[in-house]
């Protein structure tokens, strides 16, 4: 069993794991064909206006020549069989071209475009496909108009060690393919295409039900203050694994027998199969998805990343305050392109969430980093479905961040954001940024609560006054704190003139 203990030992094991992976690569690439890394396959989009690393494998010492458009560059595979070249920055191009690597053999990636490339990651709401969204049939048919949007779906894979390869393929958007695209990514990319009119590449590495720890490198995890708790949970899971695995074998055997009996008798069988427990190398192992679904694409040239995750960490929201920014910093360091844009989706409203108000707040800690932004979705969730179908608006709100802040096209990209509170005559006046045209979609303006020094929150009356909101309650003579939409599934009627919702907030820092 692999044990994860101190930060020092995990860093050492990480280095040993990387060395083992390279050693294995050297052995397996003896007399190997020249091959591209997984990013460089038919239908790919290369990032415009940046140096573009292109890499792959060959025999150690083999000379490899890479050509694309008018560029030609050479490299020699190192002792581990890895070669790498860098293409000079290119303008966007929708004219298909071939990317060719030639050594003892020739490998060609066809129908390659140059445009904007975004990494799209997270859990099930990023993985959710277009064919499950609102107006799916019309959206899929409409994809015929967007052949310059390309989508790469990384196969769901976890690994205890860093991987050099990944399964997946670039697909051209169209009626026969778009239904299987990440919906949030596709609708985001479609908005970018409409505004920029350049090819869009969407690199989708996402997996439902996954924790942020699995998407982080061992180095980033071991440096985080939450590391002792993270590693202890995993060790506890591993201790419990043998008993869970034994029980699973009994349960799955009984389930198979019951299903066979129902089939024989012509009866309906709706019992779900027992869930196989997670062990070493599973999606729940810290760093396992980073190893298998991020590392193979390093250091591809990308414009930025979008992220749709947090539900699986909501019960441990205090940890997320540091883990999320740490992951962003780590990915930026790994891709080696500075502080690339990173935009994420704040958790939507959901009736069965656990501590989701605090998790939304924890997500907001990432906004302290440069070039970050969030798409607030508190108004477009579904109380009884953790996978809301309106991914069109999710993609649009993510795109507003990118268009305004990455591409400098202007326009409002955020709803009202809490900017302080002041006392006046038994009431609190709440100030906001991004509040031009402040309005409510419910005249009663529900969702606000205030508390006095006793820390007991009660519903408050609220009224809009210019770009502020004044809140009060007869039972709270001396209010000291205000909260808005501070619940798992709250009313959220406050918007700005751009019809973007106010982000949930609180003025206090109390534990509950």
TrEMBL record:
Domain Sialate O-acetylesterase residues, every copy: 116-240, 289-401
InterPro entries according to UniProt: Ig-like_fold, SASA, SGNH_hydro_sf, SIAE
Signal sequence, renumbered to the chain: 1-32
SUPFAM superfamilies (UniProt xref): SGNH hydrolase (SSF52266)
GO biological process terms held by the UniProt record: carbohydrate metabolic process
Keywords in alphabetical order: Hydrolase, Signal
A GO term, aspect molecular function: sialate O-acetylesterase activity
TM annotation in the entry: none
Region called Disordered, residue ranges: 488-512
Designated name of the protein: Sialate O-acetylesterase domain-containing protein
Source organism per UniProt: Termitidicoccus mucosus
